[in-house]
Amino acid sequence: MKNNNKILFYGYGNPGRQDDALGISFVEEMEKWVKAQKLENIDFDTNYQLNIEDAEEISNYDLVIFADASLEPIAGFDFTEVQPSDAQVEFTMHAVSVSFVVDLCNKIYNKAPKAYLVHIKGYEWELDFDKGLSKQAEENLQEALEFMKGKLEKI
After folding, report:
1. Of 71, 82, 65, 67, which Cα lies nearest the Cα of 152?
2. Domain 7-154 bears CATH identifier 3.40.50.1450
3. pLDDT above 70 (res 93)
């Protein structure tokens, strides 16, 4: 990979709620792979949820790949381009969306990095720090990782 673009992988979710940790697990596994491949210009970050402050962080990148667990009826995982949107946000700011963060970045910093969302299908959401990912979610995670590795090799 010969790429001068600055890339950020940003995963979010609650690692104490079984499959809700899929976004964070995805980023942790990608970081191991990227380091083993000695790829450059790629950074990693994780959090429990997206925040409005993330608009500043993503303003420093050309490409941002967000990763999260999904409750939606998808097959394994989805990889979609994020379109900026100034959709309403809940009063608590607990439900900031990826498209809102990208839109905010554009409005405040006059930058809109190309952004994608990897949504990985989850099944178990019980609050239990010891259980980890469900078997099905782990399989979906592996599929998403292989897909992303293939994408990075082509950049």
Report:
1. 65
2. yes
3. no
Lookup: tokens for 107 = 């409005």
What pLDDT does 95 receive? 65
User: Any idea of the CA torsion for 76, 81, 85, 87, to the nearest 10 degrees?
Assistant: -10
Distances (CA, A) of 144 to 78, 102, 117, 137, 148: 8, 22, 11, 10, 6
Q: Residue 33's closest CA among 117, 135, 133, 153? A: 153
Going from N- to C-terminal start, the domains of the chain cover 7-154
- DSSP, residue by residue, 26-67: HHHHHHHHHHHHT--SEEEEEESS--TTHHHHHTT-SEEEEE
